[in-house]
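[retry 2/3] ER lumen protein-retaining receptor: previous attempt timed out, resubmitting with same input.
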Amino acid sequence: MNIFRFAGDMTHLISILILLLKIYATKSCAGISLKTQELYALVFLTRYLDLFTDYVSLYNSVMKIVFIASSLAIVWCMRRHPLVRRSYDKDLDTFRHQFVVLACFVLALILHERFTIQEVFWAFSIYLEAVAILPQLVLLQRSGNVDNLTGQYVLFLGAYRGLYIINWIYRYFTEDHFTRWIACVSGLVQTALYADFFYYYYMSWKTNTKLKLPA
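[retry 2/3] ER lumen protein-retaining receptor: success.
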């Protein structure tokens, strides 16, 4: 493992901890897209099918379990917690994510590295993660104002993907047979989706004003 991947993992973990802090400290999920969280839960469940079959390292296994457990816990809270679910912005969170899931699965059947169940689901999870943030970004644009914790959550989530792109570049030049082109292309698409948010976050920080995305 290189420093860029480790930094990406830690940044990803921080984004999840920020979201859990928001939910458990405020007993509110206002401004958070349940559909994005469901997509991320599906991403981790399909990507880590090898959790109990292919052991890489203790770090690798623990991180997989943490990402799966935390994503399912967030979805459960937003759906079932008696206080948290009352603050869910259902009327704003109307992105039709089922069509995204279907499109990514069809794409995975067409474009994959090896035609096995595990590899197809791995490709599916990569494609789905690239666009999983869309319902969240749409919700924030519709709601207008973005609270600090939600803004930081999205910021660290985008930073994680940026660090992973650097990781892939590093691995391309240092490993003899690095061929994860699906992850590289999907990562670039995902990072591009954050560009607009990054711009408005920077302008908000520069002018010391509340973050607000244009409708």
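[retry 2/3] ER lumen protein-retaining receptor: Residues 31 and 140 are 6 Å apart (CA to CA).
[retry 2/3] clearing retry counter.
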